[in-house]
Amino acid sequence: MNLSTDNATNLWKYNSSEPDGAASSLANFTNNSTGNHTEPSKLDLTRAIPLGLVLGAFIVFAIAGNILVILSVVCNRHLRTPTNYFIINLAIADLLLGTTVLPVSATLEILDYWVFGRIFCDIWAAVDVLCCTASIMSLCVISIDRYIGVSHPLQYPGIVTEKRALLAMLGVWVLSVVISIGPLLGWKQPPLPDDKVCPITEEPFYALFSSLGSFYIPLVVILVMYCRVYIVAKRTTKNLEAGVMRERMSSGELTLRIHKGSQVHDDSGSTGTAKGRGHHSRSSLTVKLLKFSREKKAAKTLGVVVGMFTLCWLPFFLALPIGRFHRVF
């Protein structure tokens, strides 16, 4: 009885004289109750091993695929064109994502808690935004390149030069750094006390800014460019095919008149000149049609890639700003 009374007295004295300790205990209890504090749990090998194999296979596939894309262009001089430079830029962004971001993400997914500390969490999140932004902006530049190639197939080499392509690639990375560096400079919510949690920044205005710069504005440019590519491709294909047909018909009529002897001897020189002009015109149209068909095929292929990429990213960039502003209001 006396022992219980003494213990109760001592506990009352401790709580009265150590308010910070009592408050800390209450805070820990609240965090544990609400789930804000994540305690490392025992690793479930039956879940971790299959998940690790699947995620590891995806990471290896991403790294190997992008390395092959880069090497195919670097090792073959015939593939060193501005369009392929933009594809290399896309592959570099995805390769950087696969080597720096995805392994850490896989570790977090397998362990279900963050093990790398608060500072590396901020760096990892910034590199994640950097790589994803550079990847999407590379697709945006590719869509502009394809529009120029389809709308001006003959003038394309003079418009999109190697120097301009390199400047566009540099611009992609500069804009990506501007968008991703905000949280490292303090544009983020206050850090959580639990170092075993590494959330995406919940600062609503940065979430809106990064979503617009990383996804929505490039998406609008991509959609506008490919709509114009479709319109130009449809109109130009029709005109070129009609032009080739007209030249073939006129050439056939001219040849028929020559074989029938309807041209007098004095006009034979002019007839040969007209025939040469018809052949040159037909050859020019044929070359133009072939060049345009090649550009259109490349635009279709890249359009499918861009479309699938957009569908994969759309749910995330819809949920990111909506979720952050929903918490604010």
Distance between the termini: 54 Å
Shape: elongated
The structure class reads: mainly alpha
**Backbone CA Rg:** 32 Å
Give me the number of helical elements.
9
- What is the percent of helical residues? over 70%
Biggest β-sheet description: none
Number of strands: 0
Give a written overview of the molecule:
The protein is an all-alpha fold and 329 residues long. 81% of the residues lie in helices and 0% in strands. It has helices spanning 2-17, 19-34, 45-75, 82-111, 118-151, 156-159, 162-180, 204-260, 268-328. α4 runs antiparallel to α5 (118-151), α4 packs parallel to α7 (162-180) and α5 (118-151) runs parallel beside α8 (204-260). The longest helix has 61 residues, at 268-328. The radius of gyration is 32 Å and the shape is elongated. The two termini are 54 Å apart. 22% of the residues are buried. The model is unreliable at 1-38 and 253-270 (pLDDT under 50).
Summarize the structure.
It is elongated, with a radius of gyration of 32 Å. The chain has helices at 2-17, 19-34, 45-75, 82-111, 118-151, 156-159, 162-180, 204-260, 268-328. Helices cover 81% and strands 0% of the residues.
Write the layout of secondary structure elements.
Layout: H1 2-17, H2 19-34, H3 45-75, H4 82-111, H5 118-151, H6 156-159, H7 162-180, H8 204-260, H9 268-328
Helix pairs in contact: 3-4, 4-5, 4-7, 5-7, 5-8, 5-9, 8-9
